[in-house]
């Protein structure tokens, strides 16, 4: 009875964590799309989000220090600039280009194109030797690429500029997540907790994105009536509140991902991400008026099958590695116990020989 109650509790908890993740992940996609319809400064919006995430990460770290009584990790400047900076720059460009693309493309095209990030993650995982090349990876790449082609083929809501932005963001995202994995796996840095990672990334992300913002939106924003040339206080407050809500959603997304992974597994997050894409497309067709033909749905299904195959293979190989590691550990422990037993027997035989010599 207790086992059934414990299993039911785990199922309910996992479902609650997945829904919590969906609220922030789907919510920020639709919210940013809605906001950019009237606020045409996506790079400035991203800078505000980064500032809010840094402030909330700082407050969270202070709360964790107070709760645990232990100081949080603080990197040295050498490690910060050499190891964190590449992750920060690629992350800033990924998020900035993704938000920028909302000015041009629909949510369905954004969601589908963003799914192609798996291709680039696989590519850079092979480059950095995080994955072993095999036939299954080629099948995954072909499924995702053909699904993306079918989705964008003869699309009436297709925009080349926005599509290139998301595709470039996906390409940079492949570098970003590969470097992030390498960064968080370095135990000596102490950035295994994503709150600490978010805290260290935001300042460099802000500095990396600021020149691009200045070049593309700086002059236009400085003369805009949205912020700097307001005649009344209410439009300014409205802009600040809407931007702050987006920043809170961005922080909540990172926190919900961390909570889901820490309480379940990264496999649960990956599987949840597949169903999240389906939910996003369904909501986009009903709420935003995105048109989905049978060819688009077929392309999306093929793409999802490729992503699902990749997730399943990663789970399978991780189990094999874990099983091999347990067998190796067990074998080493047996060899060690046999070695100790042999040493004990040798010592006993030496003691017996010594006693015999004394008696003689």
From TrEMBL:
Stretch list, region Disordered: 341-360
One of the Pfam families matching this protein, by short name: TPT
Alphabetical keyword list: Membrane, Transmembrane, Transmembrane helix
Compartments where located: Membrane
Record's bilayer topology term: Multi-pass membrane protein
Keyword Membrane attributed: yes
Bias type Acidic residues, positions: 341-351
Domain Sugar phosphate transporter: 14-309
Main localisation: membrane
A single cellular component GO annotation: membrane
InterPro entries reported in the protein's UniProt record: Sugar_P_trans_dom, TPT_transporter
Transmembrane segment boundaries: 7-31, 43-63, 109-128, 135-153, 159-179, 199-216, 236-255, 294-317
PANTHER family named in the record: SOLUTE CARRIER FAMILY 35
Protein name: Sugar phosphate transporter domain-containing protein
Organism in which the protein naturally occurs: Umbra pygmaea (Eastern mudminnow)
């Amino acid at each position: 009875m207790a086992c059934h109650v414990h299993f039911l509790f785990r199922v309910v908890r996992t479902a609650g964590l997945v829904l919590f993740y969906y609220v922030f992940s789907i919510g920020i996609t639709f919210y940013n799309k809605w906001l950019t319809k009237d606020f045409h400064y996506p790079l400035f919006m991203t800078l505000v989000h980064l500032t809010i995430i840094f402030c909330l990460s700082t407050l969270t770290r202070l709360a964790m220090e107070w709760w645990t009584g232990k100081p949080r990790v603080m990197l040295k400047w050498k490690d910060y600039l050499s190891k964190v900076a590449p992750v920060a720059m690629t992350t800033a460009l990924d998020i900035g280009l993704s938000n920028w693309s909302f000015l041009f493309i629909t949510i369905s095209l954004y969601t589908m194109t963003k799914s192609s990030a798996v291709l680039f993650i696989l590519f850079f995982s092979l480059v950095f030797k995080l994955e072993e090349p095999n036939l299954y990876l080629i099948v995954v790449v072909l499924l995702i690429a053909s699904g993306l082609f079918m989705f964008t083929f003869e699309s009436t809501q297709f925009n080349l500029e926005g599509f290139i932005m998301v595709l470039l963001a996906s390409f940079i995202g492949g570098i970003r997540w590969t470097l992030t994995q390498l960064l968080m796996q370095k135990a000596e840095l102490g950035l295994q907790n994503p709150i600490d990672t978010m805290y260290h990334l935001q300042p460099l992300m802000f500095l990396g994105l600021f020149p691009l913002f200045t070049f593309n939106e700086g002059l236009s924003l400085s003369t805009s009536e949205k912020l700097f040339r307001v005649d009344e206080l209410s439009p300014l407050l409205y802009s600040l509140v809407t931007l702050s809500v987006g920043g809170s959603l961005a922080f909540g997304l990172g926190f919900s991902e961390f909570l889901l992974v820490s309480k379940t597994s990264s496999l649960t997050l990956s599987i949840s991400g597949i169903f999240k894409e389906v939910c996003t497309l369904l909501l986009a067709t009903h709420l935003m008026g995105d048109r989905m033909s049978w060819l688009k749905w077929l392309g999306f299904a093929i793409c999802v099958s490729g992503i699902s195959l990749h997730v399943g293979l990663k789970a399978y190989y991780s189990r094999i590695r874990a099983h091999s590691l347990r067998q190796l550990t067990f074998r080493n422990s047996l060899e060690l116990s046999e070695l100790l037993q042999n040493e004990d027997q040798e010592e006993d035989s030496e003691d017996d020989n010594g006693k015999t010599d004394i008696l003689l």
